Every structure is written in structure tokens, then in C-alpha cells.
Write a sequence for this structure.
């Protein structure tokens, strides 16, 4: 179809319209792109890397289960090991969600640890935890290669790919920031704070986070926390049970002692591989190294499915969530 | 204090450390910067620009009031006028929150309008509404000046200020995107989709949004909606009553007909200037043209208050929320 453009249309806009595919109205949405992925592009998550967090039932008696994926190497492995140790010691059983700060984080742990509303003594931690420091959170690779995956974050201007890092991209299914230090040619890489990412709460000193206090992001990506607090994973299922909790009215969104009954009890946190096979949740993510993910990222950056009239021309890394799904039965 | 840096520290990091103020550990947080603003830097919001939305009380009988600020000229004035017309006709009284999609939007309106779960006929709209089109949402200024305010979004590299627009900045207290078209020297400006912004729901065609269906952002900024759906305001108080609602399990987060009792009733929406003086909410925002806002934006981009060990070096516009507060008594 040949269209005659109105004469008053600015040339730059005309160029944009003309560069769209002729079938723009039938362009697939990002979800439709993902639905077309081959089975081989979905990567199964090992049960050792999944945590099952069981919250107390809600007011209507409905069960609430949250599944968390722990990060693979090379990131945050000391904390990840601590979290498995804490889960296997049963340490998390009986703790609670103590902080819900709107447009920021939900935090769970011991209500008497580092809480402005603490009323008793902190729960003793089990033996065998490693003392970690924030510097262990950033991976330093002595090579010019930026990662295991291709850099896929789509933007017509590479220098506009990210505001918080030289490059933001995806590696092994995770959103990461990258910087190259000029003098050493070392590459520094770190996971970034997108919605649903899980991190390690800590005190003022960077070596005070054990993995006993955890949080997840429930608002706009607080990227200023990148390289300041260690990320250890992400929520893969049940996010809505955390993001919809009532907000705390105390300092930093902690529930005050008057609101103590708002603290959602955590009945247990288990490593999925420790559960009977039939009870193990099975999830997978779309490989971020495949062609489908590249097309998905491009579709997120330039929505051309029917609702949209103006493609954005770019997308920030946290606006390209890595697709996750329950694994189909074998 | 003179520090000896370890020899292994990369030079670029050393330079960063040395460029911090000597009193880095005492640097104020963004909130502390805002607390130091002079009274003249706070701008009162006119009662004509505030809506009071009263939700039904929660399960514990607690009242839930949400206050919305409507946008000033030049943006979206046709929809803003429609919203006042709808409020004054009592049209919103008895509608409900019909859609809560995690990490995206909460939407309220007629449960039988453009809802995959509709069960009855749509509620007739009052007379006097303007038919608006998305092209009325973008302001085109025939001048080289980008706005009324100075451009204050801090970043050491101006070309890294935004991923979705040539420039993202603030004007009259609102976050906006700016693009200059090369051929006409016209400046195109539009408000952007940050957390808590309020927009006009519409169908597939860009002229189908009247202002009867409204939504607010409850997750990571969906900037791909910029210039695709008209923004008309933002939540200034009571956001937590919307963001913590249970998520809908239907298509696009709509509550299914089986979940119809999850739809939160909206008892009324009133223009604040129509209320008795004693019942009018009073709010103000920090001028985005003043020196305090510039220092606040810089502090958001480079956190140096005690918890932080690595300033980000930049911030995206939605990570610099415009400070809002209840106005002190006269």
C-alpha cells in the first residue's frame, strides 16, 4: 500500500513512519515473540538454585508460596552458600516480613535484627556462615570479553544503552552492568536492581550482610543500589504475595511495634532440591543468548503491536524483564 | 585526612574516590537536602488541580482516601477538562478498581467498559466531553527553548540523560521528555510514565480515551507508553491504597468475573475546589527550577550518605521523584 504523507508532517517523523514494516499493524507483541521460541531456547533452572518460601496463609486461608531463583556463578556465591546454609538449618522458619516500603522494597528476616522497631534480642545465626564483603559482589574478569552472552540490549545508539553503567546487558539469563577500567583492561560486571530482584539486607558496614535478611524490589528499579548491596537472586513465582502487602508506616517502611500483626509470618524457606521430587517446583528462563531474546528485546524497545502509535526507540534494561515460566511436564 | 591508596586499586577507581568531598561520610541524603529547602521553594497546588478519590473502607473499616494532582497547561488539558466534567457530574461515583497488574498499572473506571470480563452494558457518559486524540498530548513549541524550567537532570554526560527521549528533564514540577525536530526547530515535549503518574485508559484507537477510565503506574516506569497514552496527573497521597491491592488473575490483570468482589468500590471522586474549605486537601511540590531541586537530583544521582560505598554517577528521570508534601498550615 502506498500512502501519501500530509505535507505538514515533519521530515523526521515521516522517516520514522516509513521505516516501519509495511505490516506494522500485524507486528507481534513481545509476548507473542516469546511464545514462538523453540523448546531448546528455554533453560531449566536447577532445583539447587530454587528456594521455596512458604508464607502463612492469607486472611481467607489461601496458601501463599513464593519461589526464588538464586544466582549462578560468578556472582554473590558466598551469600548464596550462606542462604542455603540458613535454609538447611531451618533458621528462616518463623521469621517474618518486617518492612514494606512503597515503590522500593519488601524485606524479610528476624524482626529483631537491625530494625528500628525491634523489641527483643536477635535470633542467633547458625555456624558455618561466610563473612562477605560488597567487593565480592562484583565480578572482575581479566579479559576484554564482556560476558558469556552476546550483548543483546537493543538501542540504535550504543552509547545510550544505560545511564548507570558503561553497558547494560544480559548474561546467563540475568541483567548485568559492565564497566571496563582503562588501565587494566579488566572488565567489572555486576547484576542490577530490577523489579523482583532479591538482595541481601545489611547494616552500615559493607561486610554486615549474611544472607539472613533478604529483600526484593517492588517499585521503579533502584539502580543506585547497584554495587552497594549484593544481589543474590530474583522472584520467579508468587511476587504478587509480596508486592501487595500493606505498607509499613514506620521509618523506611518497617512495620511499627503497633503494627506488629501486619508482619507476615514465613513458615519455612527450603532449597527445592531438598524437597521430595514431586514437590519440587520446576521453572525455566528464556536464554538471553538466543535469537528469540534478541527479537523480544527489540520488540520491547519498539512496540509495533496494534495498540501502539509511537515506538519508543529504546528500552532500559529493567524494562526488558527476562521471560520466566513454569517448565512444561517432561 | 590523607589516605594511602592500595597499589592494586585501578586508577579510575582511585580518581573516583579522590573526587569525593573530604566529608563524604557526612554528605546529606536526598531527603536531607529537601528538608533544607526554603519555604519559597515549595509551590502550592491549586485546589482546582486536586481530585479527592474516596475508596470504600478496607476490611478493617479503615478509610482510604487518594489525592490526585491534575496536570497544568500545556499538557493534556482536554482530558483534564473531561475529568473535572465527569467528577462534577458524579459519574465516577460507584465505579471501581477493575484491573491490578503486577509491576504495571492499577486501573479504575466502569467495570463494563472495555473489560474482557464485562458482564453488562457500559455506563452512559455525561454530555459535554471533548473527543481527544493522542496527538493533543504532545506539546509542540515553535522555539528553541526546551521549557519553562532550566534543565536540571544531573549526569556527567549530557548524551546519557535518557534512553527514551533526546532529553528528559523537569518543567513546572513534572518529569518530561523533549525532542527537537531538525527541520522545523520545533520542540516536542511530553510528560513521562514514572511510578505514580496517572493516565487515561483507551481502546485500540488513539481517540477513544475520554478520561472516564484512569490508571496509575505501580511498577518499573513503562516508558514505552510515553506518547502512546495521555498522562493527566499523578498520585500525591494514598498511593499505597492502590499499589497494595490484590492482583487480578484475568487477562492484563483484570479481575475475572469470579473475582468480582475484589473490585474496590470508588465511592466518589471530587474536585477539591468543590469541597468545603475545611475538607480541601492542601499539597505542595518542590519547585523543579530551584537550587534545592538541583542539589536533590545530584544527591539522587550520586548517593554519598553513609550507607553508600559506590555513587551511581547518574540517575534516570523516574529515579528522581519530584518531592511532594502536605502543605503546612498557613
Amino acid at each position: 500500500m502506498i500512502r501519501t504523507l500530509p505535507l505538514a508532517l515533519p521530515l523526521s517523523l515521516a522517516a520514522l513512519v516509513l521505516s516501519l514494516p509495511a505490516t506494522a499493524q500485524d507486528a507481534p507483541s513481545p509476548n507473542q515473540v516469546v511464545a514462538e521460541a523453540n523448546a531448546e531456547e528455554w533453560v531449566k533452572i536447577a532445583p539447587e538454585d530454587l528456594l521455596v518460601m512458604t508464607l502463612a496463609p492469607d486472611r481467607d486461608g489461601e496458601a501463599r508460596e513464593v519461589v526464588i531463583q538464586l544466582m549462578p556463578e560468578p556472582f554473590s556465591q558466598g551469600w548464596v552458600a550462606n542462604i542455603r546454609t540458613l535454609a538447611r538449618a531451618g533458621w528462616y522458619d518463623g521469621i517474618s516480613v518486617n518492612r514494606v516500603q512503597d515503590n522500593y522494597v519488601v524485606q524479610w528476616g528476624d524482626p529483631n535484627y537491625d530494625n528500628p522497631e525491634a523489641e527483643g534480642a536477635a535470633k542467633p545465626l547458625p555456624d558455618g556462615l561466610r563473612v562477605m564483603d560488597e567487593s565480592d559482589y562484583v565480578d572482575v574478569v581479566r579479559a576484554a570479553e564482556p560476558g558469556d552472552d552476546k550483548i543483546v540490549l537493543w538501542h540504535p545508539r550504543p552509547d545510550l544503552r544505560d545511564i548507570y553503567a558503561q553497558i547494560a546487558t544480559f548474561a546467563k539469563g540475568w541483567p548485568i552492568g559492565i564497566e571496563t577500567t582503562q588501565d587494566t583492561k579488566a572488565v567489572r560486571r555486576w547484576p542490577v536492581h530490577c523489579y523482583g530482584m532479591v538482595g541481601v539486607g545489611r547494616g552500615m558496614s559493607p561486610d554486615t550482610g549474611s544472607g539472613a535478611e533478604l529483600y526484593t524490589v517492588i517499585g521503579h528499579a533502584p539502580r543506585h543500589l547497584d554495587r552497594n548491596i549484593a544481589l543474590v537472586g530474583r522472584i520467579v513465582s508468587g511476587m504478587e504475595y509480596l508486592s501487595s502487602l500493606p505498607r509499613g508506616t514506620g521509618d523506611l517502611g518497617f512495620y511499627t511495634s503497633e503494627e506488629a500483626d501486619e508482619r507476615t509470618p514465613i513458615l519455612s524457606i527450603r532449597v527445592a532440591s531438598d524437597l521430595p521430587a514431586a514437590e519440587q517446583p520446576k521453572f525455566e528462563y528464556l536464554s538471553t543468548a538466543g535469537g528469540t531474546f534478541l527479537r523480544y528485546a527489540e520488540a520491547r524497545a519498539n512496540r509495533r503491536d496494534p495498540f501502539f502509535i509511537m515506538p519508543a526507540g529504546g528500552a532500559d534494561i529493567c524494562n526488558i524483564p527476562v521471560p520466566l515460566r513454569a517448565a512444561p511436564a517432561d
